[in-house]
Amino acid sequence: MPGADKETDLTERIEAFLADLKRGGSGTGPLRGSGEMARETTYLLRRITAQARWSSAGDLMEIIRNEGRRMTAAQPSETTVGNMVRRVLKIIREEYARSRGSSEETEQQESLHKLLTAGELSEETFREHFVHLKANVIEAINELLTELDGTTDNIAMQALEHIHSNEVIMTVGRSRTVEAFLKDAARKRKFHVIVAECAPFCQGHEMATGLSKVGIETTVIADAAIFAVMSRVNKVIIGTQTVLANGGLRAVNGTHSVALAARHHSTPLIICAPMFKLSPQVFTTCSLSLNDVNSCFPVLKILSKVNVHCPVFDYVPPELITLFISNIGGNAPSYIYRLMSELYHPEDHKL
Amino acid sequence: MSSRGGKQKKGNVTSEQEEEEQPLQAVLVADSFNRRFFPISKDQPRALLPLGNVAMIDYTLEFLTSTGVQETFVFCCWMSNKIKDHLLKSKWCRPTSPNVVHIITSDLYRSLGDVLRDVDAKNLVRNDFILVYGDVVSNIDVSQALQEHRHRRKVDKNISVMTMVFKESSPGHKSRCEEDDVIVAMDSKSKRFSMGTDEFEIRHDLLDCHISICSPQVAELFTDNFDYQTRNDFVRGILVNEEILGNQIHLYVTQDGYGARVSNLQMYDSVSSDMVRRWVYPLTPEANFTDQQGQGCTHSRHNVYRGAEVSLGHGSQMEENVLIGRDTSIGANCHISNSVIGNNCTIGDNVVLDRAHMWNNVHISSNVEIHQSVVCDGAVVKEAVRLNKQCVLAYNVVIGPNLSLPEGTVVSMHHPEEEEEDDDDEFLSDDQEVGHSKDKTRQKAFNPAEVGPEGKGYIWKASMNDTEDEELAQCLWGLVLNPDPESDSESEASEESQDRTFQLEVLGTLQRGLEENIVCDNLVLEINSLKYAYNITLKEVMQILTRVVLEYPFQQQGTQLTTLQYTGSLLPLLKTWSPVFKNYIKRAQDHLDCLSAVEELFLEQDTHQTAMVKVLMKMYQLEILEEEAILKWFSTGATNDKSRQLRKNQGLQKFIQWLKEAEDESSEEGE
Questions:
Q1: What per-residue confidence (pLDDT) applies to B425?
Q2: Residue B334 and residue B339: Cα distance in Å, rounded?
Q3: Does Thylakoid count among this protein's keywords (chain A) (predicted)?
Q4: Residues ≥6 apart with Cβ < 8 Å to B645
Q5: pLDDT(B483) > 70
Q6: Beta strands B50-51 and B25-29: pairing type?
Q7: B309-340 confidence digits (pLDDT tens)
Q8: Is the pLDDT of residue B363 over 70?
Q9: What is the ipTM for the molecules in this complex?
Q10: Cis link prior to A318 (omega < 30° from 0)?
Q11: Phi/psi of residue B539, each to 5°?
Q12: With contacts defined as CB-CB under 8 Å, which chain A residues touch B281?
């Protein structure tokens, strides 16, 4: 009886989460940042691990994969959900391997050397039952949660290395990570920030008010003035929604034009993004399927013969980016693929 | 004492809290009580017709759920089993749904009024509720309107009965239904329907979303007035009785947000295209808000949505605003734009689809052209067919090769005549077997000229019943103007007959007056009441009265009267009835009207023109007519030859001369 209750409770929570995801993306629900989203997902995954019925790692992975598929289908633009699912799957694999006793390194990495020297293909079935697997997995997920909690602080701690006195920094729209980054630097340095307002939702205004409260000199400019002002800017620091597998970005609308303007003036473009935003997806040029197109009403009232497109995200190619600052330090865009292989198992790229 | 006061206060607070915590309820009427979508809705109820491959009732339920409704009552009448099945399988009947759906079916509902009377009888709603139809597509957030409504009711002690949600939309916009076009007079400050206040605006730029926030009194009012059938009856009743009952209706006008009701196929076309162009965000095709397996699709540039497993042939183009359901295969060199295609369809090569709406399992062969048409489930369109605008192919119809259907053709597997006979039975029982057996017995041959050599189906005429006589007939696609030259003469004839009856009545009155010696005041009273009964204007009353009086001797004694006899009998009558005349002839214009009536009569009665002088003389003496009026009439009133001829009459000229002299004398005396 209690088991059945737990299960129904679990399904209810999953359904509620899915409904929230759907509604959250549509703007009718509460707007959440990616960090919160990641945390909620991890809580839910931990609960699934704790409460669902599974006997071996394979079962658990199957369950989590199914739920993960449903969650990503509910809101494809919210990539942190899928990222967290993949992280948890990787955790399960690691714990399983550790329980088995073999070291993680040799099993996971595919390399040319391994291909040549491998005898027979050893199939991992994950069928063995280990008593402490559940506890280990839950502990590892808790570690993941602590990591998630600390990402913003870790990134902000690196601010002093990158921002110098009397610099002019440009940013676009509103990013909590960048806000924390700049606020941390403002404790010791004096600099000037230019914020592009990012129409039509104009989130840059909120960013500017937040920064000015801490005493940073802030200027808000319209999106059209970005190129004109770029010549006076020392650095461009922006946040992003997703970091793609090739080092490119899926960021808020308008970022691509900022990146191009920065490249034209040879201004360094720095991205502050925590590791949970790194996604194994790749941008495909033939379709905008990764792009969420929003409601047209902020732009125009309804008209019969006019089609209004109001995309939410932009793709920024990796050539335009100088540096990624994440909670594990600064990295070049060309190194992102390597970081990704550490975070996710190749078989989990497609859920 | 103070503690008791404190307790009372606490009591108030909790009751307020309780009021606010009451779950928001909604009444969804899943039946439209009209036949606008016949013959399509013969097989499938209107609420389940797919709009963008999702049943229309799903849009309404999603709109209600996202607004925060927690309890919905769905009322079904026509084909309620199908609606019930659909809802039980949908996500709203899952235990985790935030909106609890109760389905109430009855065969006895014939109108919105019946549904609301049932709501009142079963005491289903405790508080303000949202009233909506099953075919409303909207993304408006009604919580603001709800707050205003509740606030108004609290402040004004329940005077405001209903708040109607309108959307600002320019006149003539595609998503405004022509039949529902409304001009609204509203008080600008308080946003209620009114005309009598200081500042009111008249607006034509409002689109009726058919979403209303009603107070519980609405259901009671419908029970009290059992002749209220539609929402318009209700609104009219409230506005007319505003002074007596004191109820008011308010408006909520929204600028953003989209709301429309699919009331005919024209609206279906525009709402569907608005949905594909994402005006109804977040209810977009790729969002898959109904949570059905396999329903998701990907969204690409130019609003092209593709479902899973769609195959596109070589050289085919999906230009813009296209939605393709899953498992559909499209042939080579097709050109598709502004269309919605359902699941499991097969489309051949060289097909041109423009503003076509195709539902599931449709099979289209090569070289077909479809423009602005609806093709329902299971239909087959063979080679080289051209469907012109506004065609409808109902379920399972086959249209043969090499055919071009003219605009506005409706083809259905149900024979049009079968509808009238089986009407009552089908309405009451949606027992499918009954329908099938009747189909078999009445299988008439298909006309190859209408549906092609291999075709199957019957052409359904738009106006089957008594709408043929009306000028604005309703067809599936909206209103159609029927130029009907006979209608004008009919209306004239009816007016004339009314005048005729009135005349006879007046005659009867006067006769009785003579026989029974009725006082003239009572005669006036009677004539006035006849005036209201027959809706005659004052001027006409007076003219007809004059005529009747002047013809009275003819009526009594036959038409073969000499002039002498005529005047002999008429003049005393004039004297008797002079008060009646004086009652109606007061202003200068009345005098002229009376004179023209006299003239008309005597123009007809040529032989008695000499009598006219005597009549006029008598009327002047009795002070029924004034000399100025007579002189004016004489000098200016000649409109045609006959009347000019009349004025040349000797007697009349002498009379006019005498009148002038008399006037001069009287004016001299006056000085």
A1: 40
A2: 13
A3: no
A4: none
A5: no
A6: unpaired
A7: 899 999 998 988 899 998 999 999 999 999 99
A8: yes
A9: 0.78
A10: no
A11: -60, -45
A12: 26, 294-296
Percent of chain A with pLDDT over 90: 45
Per the CB < 8 A criterion, the answer to whether B573 and B615 are in contact is no
In this predicted structure, which of A212-216, B3-7, B285-289 has the lowest mean pLDDT?
Answer: B3-7
Which of A250-254, B186-190, B487-491, B665-669 bottoms out in mean pLDDT, i.e. has the lowest?
Answer: B487-491
Measure the CA–CA gap between A265 and B358, rounded to whole angstroms: 53
DSSP result, B368-403 = -EEES-EE-TT-EE-TTEEE-TT-EE-TT-EE-SSE
**Residue B170 has what pLDDT?**
73
Q: Could you tell me the strand order of the sheet in which A313-316 lies?
A: A242-243, A249-252, A313-316
Q: Provide the token pair at B303.
A: 């609003």
Task: Output the pTM of the full model.
Answer: 0.71
| pLDDT of amino acid B418 | 61
Mean pLDDT of chain B: 77
- CB-based contact B402:B381 (threshold 8 Å): no
Left (φ > 0), alpha (ψ -120 to 50) or beta: where does B33 sit? left
User: Amino acid identity, residue B551?
Assistant: E
- Strand stretches in chain A, DSSP E: 168-172, 192-196, 217-221, 235-238, 242-243, 249-252, 269-272, 313-316, 323-326, 329-331
Q: What's phi and psi for B532, nearest 5 deg? A: -70, -35
Of the given ranges (A25-34, B292-301, B369-378, B379-388), which has the lowest mean pLDDT?
A: A25-34
CB of B205 within 8 Å of a chain A CB? The answer is no
Q: Do B299 and A28 touch (CB under 8 A)?
A: no
Report how far residue A259's alpha carbon sits from residue A322's, in angstroms, rounded to the nearest whole number. 10
Nearest to A289 among B288, B299, B302 (CB): B299
Measured CA to CA, the distance from residue B287 to residue A26 in angstroms comes to 9
Residue B404 neighbours by CB under 8 Å, 6+ apart = B385, B386, B388
Residue B278 has its nearest CB partner, among A12, A288, A293, at A293
Residue A34 tokens read as 């990616």
Question: How many angstroms separate the CA atoms of B498 and B492, rounded?
Answer: 10
Q: Name the burial class of residue B366, with classes exposed (0-12), middle (13-18) and buried (19+) by CB atoms within 10 angstroms of its CB.
A: middle
Q: Which residue of A has its CA nearest to B256?
A: A297
Using CA coordinates, name the residue in chain B closest to A301.
Answer: B256
Token code pair at residue A316: 């920024």
Taking the alpha carbons at both ends of chain B, their separation in whole angstroms is 90
Tell me the two tokens of residue B177. 């239904």
User: CA–CA separation, B611 vs B569, rounded Å?
Assistant: 12
Smallest CA-to-CA distance from B36 within B314, B211, B263, B261 is with: B263
Whether residue B634 contacts residue B590, with contact meaning beta carbons closer than 8 Å, is answered with no
- Return the CA Rg of chain B: 35
What does B395-459 look like in DSSP terms, one character per residue?
Answer: TT-EE-SSEEEPTT-EEESS-HHHHHHHHHHHHH---HHHHHHHHHHT-PPP-HHHH-TT-B-EE
Backbone φ/ψ region at B356: left (φ over 0), alpha (ψ -120 to 50), beta: beta
Pairing of strands B129-133, B206-214: antiparallel
Tell whether A50 lies on the interface with B, counting CB pairs under 8 A: no
* Facing residue for A287 by CB, picked from B95, B255, B301: B301
B259-316 pLDDT, tens digit per residue, is 888 888 888 888 898 888 888 877 888 777 777 777 778 888 788 888 888 999 999 9
Angle at B342 between CA B269 and CA B48, to 5 degrees: 65
Distance CA A187, CA A168 (A): 16
Length of chain B counted residue by residue: 671
Cross-chain residue pair A307–B277, CB shorter than 8 Å = yes
**pLDDT tier at B153, thresholds 50, 70, 90:** confident
**What would the two tokens of residue A167 be?**
């610099």
